[in-house]
Specification:
Layout: E1 3-6, H1 12-23, E2 27-32, H2 35-47, E3 51-56, H3 62-67, E4 75-78, H4 90-116, E5 122-126, H5 142-162, E6 168-173, H6 191-202, E7 212-214
Parallel strand pairs: 1-2, 1-4, 2-3, 4-5, 5-6, 6-7
Helix pairs in contact: 1-6, 4-5
C-alpha cells in the first residue's frame, strides 16, 4: 500500500488531494493546522471506504514539523500554503513566508530518509504561477510571490540532486484557480484539474521524471 502525506489537507485543494489518493487505495496522513480540520478530512475518507490518519502540522512552526508522527512514506505532497493578498501585517508576511518557504524545506528534509526507503518515492509541490520567473498572473501579495519563488528554487535543485536516487520531484505552477466550476476550454482552471495533474504524474512509470507542470493563462477563445 502506498503511504501519502498531504499538507494543508484540512480544506480546499489539499482535502481534494487527500480524498483522491485515498480513493486510489493509498493510506493518507492528512495534516492541517487544526486537529478538527484534519479529522474532518479523515472522516470523509473513512466514509468513502478509504484509509487515513489525521495529524496536526503547522508549517510555520519548526517544532510542529519535528514532532509530526510519520513512520513510512512514499509520496509527500507539499500543498499547504497560506495565500496572502490585500492589506497585510508584518506577522502575516512572516507566517506566509515561514510556512511556504522554510516549512517546505524543513518538512521535506526531515522526511527524505523515509522517502529513500520507498520503492516509488515522489515529492509533489503545489507551487503557483507566482513562483514562475517573470510571471505576474496572480493577484497575491508580493510576499506570497517571494515565498513561492523560494519554494520553486528549492524544488528545482532538489529535483536535479535526487534524480540519481530515483526520487521524483514534481512541481505544479497553476495560476489562481477555482475550487469548483465547469472544466471547459474557456473556463478558469479548477482544483479538480490540478489534482488530476498530480495523479497523472505520480502514476507514470518510474523512468518518467516529470519535473513541472506549467499552465497557459486563460485567454478569450476566438470565435
Amino acid at each position: 500500500m502506498t503511504h501519502v502525506l498531504v499538507t494543508g489537507a484540512g480544506r480546499d485543494t489539499g482535502r481534494k488531494l487527500a480524498l483522491a489518493f485515498a480513493a486510489r487505495g493509498a493510506h493518507v496522513l492528512a495534516t492541517a493546522r487544526t486537529r478538527d480540520a484534519a479529522e474532518e478530512t479523515v472522516e470523509l475518507i473513512h466514509a468513502a471506504g478509504g484509509r487515513a490518519t489525521a495529524a496536526v502540522l503547522d508549517l510555520a512552526d519548526p517544532a510542529s514539523i519535528e514532532q509530526l508522527p510519520v513512520e513510512r512514506l512514499d509520496v509527500l505532497v507539499n500543498s499547504g500554503a497560506r495565500y496572502l493578498a490585500g492589506e497585510v501585517s508584518p506577522a502575516d508576511i512572516i507566517d506566509t513566508i515561514g510556512g511556504i518557504a522554510t516549512g517546505t524545506v524543513l518538512l521535506t528534509e526531515r522526511l527524505l530518509p523515509l522517502l529513500r526507503e520507498s520503492d516509488a518515492p515522489d515529492i509533489v509541490n503545489l507551487i503557483s504561477a507566482a513562483g514562475e520567473p517573470g510571471q505576474h498572473r496572480s493577484e497575491a501579495h508580493a510576499a506570497f510571490y517571494a515565498a513561492k519563488h523560494a519554494q520553486a528554487g528549492y524544488a528545482e535543485i532538489l529535483s536535479e540532486r535526487l534524480r540519481p536516487e530515483g526520487i521524483r520531484v514534481i512541481s505544479l505552477f497553476p495560476p489562481d484557480f477555482t475550487q469548483t466550476g465547469p472544466r471547459h476550454p474557456g473556463s478558469p482552471l479548477t482544483a479538480d484539474s490540478v489534482v488530476d495533474c498530480v495523479l497523472f504524474a505520480v502514476t507514470q512509470p518510474r523512468d518518467c521524471f516529470i519535473r513541472a507542470f506549467y499552465f497557459e493563462q486563460l485567454a478569450p477563445l476566438h470565435p
